[in-house]
Each structure stands twice: as structure tokens, then as C-alpha cells.
Amino acid sequence: MGNKTSRALIGLAIAGAGLLTACSGDDPLAAQAGNSEGKNYIAGDGSVMEIAQNERGEPVEFSGETFDGQTISGESLEGPTLVNFWYASCAPCRVEAPHLAELNAEFEDDVTFVGVNVRDGAETAAAFERNFEIEYPSIEGRDGQVLLEFTDYVPPQAVPTTLVLDDQGRVAARVLGAVEQSTLKSLLAGVVDE
Known about the structure:
By secondary structure, the chain is of the alpha/beta class.
């Protein structure tokens, strides 16, 4: 290769790197994807989205099997529901797990809690649930079907994500990233009191 060709290729490589950096510079999720630092997830930013009753869409239609073979679907749930997308090695999932366990106990008469495990097999999921004293069931979601059914509300790479469904099965609130206990308690109380 001649000197001109080598310089031209180096110039193109530098320009291309600059464009890639510019594209991801303003997008925190893109920045995490490009520099995941070995954490194997893209964390949400903890942002909370609440949807007024008159602005909520149709009930979310979903169905999946728990690790012990029970079917859980939108139609089988009664009353308000919390749906949490998680997996065992996700650091923010581990942070929020004790809060979810406590809130499940506090709201057990008013809100159904359901997990959707997007990565783990039965043994890994069970170990996580034992460790954090999670009493509610989780749907086995490695095939992506349940995530796909929630795609309007759950970005595929933002785990954990927590949804609060009203008593009609419509999304009333969403939290991207680890949820703070006080915030989630307020969101749950809001749908219970509607």
C-alpha cells in the first residue's frame, strides 16, 4: 500500500470514530451500550412515568409460565398488579429486591406482584428469590415473548423495569431502573385508591 492510501485509510478510520462518538454522546443508554464496563446490563435512569386514568391505553395482554409451570396472564390477574422485569446477576435488580419483597408483604391484600425473569434458568431464579425472600411468582421470560408483549412500555435492554397496572390491567406507571421503595409505595397506593 502506498503512503497516500495508508494516510487516506487512517483518516477515514479517525473520521468514523468521531462520528460514532458523536452519535452516542447525547444518549446515556447508547453510551452504556458502548462502554458497559462488564456489567452485562443497561441500567435505566430511575425515571418515573405516571399515566393519568383518562390517558391510559388498553389493558396489556400477556401470558407466560412460571418456573413451576403455572400460567399467569393479564386475564388471570385481579386488581392492581406490579410487574417487575429482572434477572439475578443484574446489580440494580439486587438493590431493589428487598424493597419489592417488603412492599409485596405490605400490599399483599391489594396488589398482585409478578416478576418476569428475562435471563435465568429455574435454579438461578430460585436461589435469587430465596436469598431476597421473594414470595411472589416470576414468569420465565428468556424467550422474550412476555417482554415483547410489554414492548410499548419496557425497553428491551433496560432491566430492571417495573410497571404498575391498574385494576383494568392498563399501565398506570413505569419505573426504568432500580425503584426506590418510597416512590413505588406511592405509585402502588395511588392505584389502590383509584
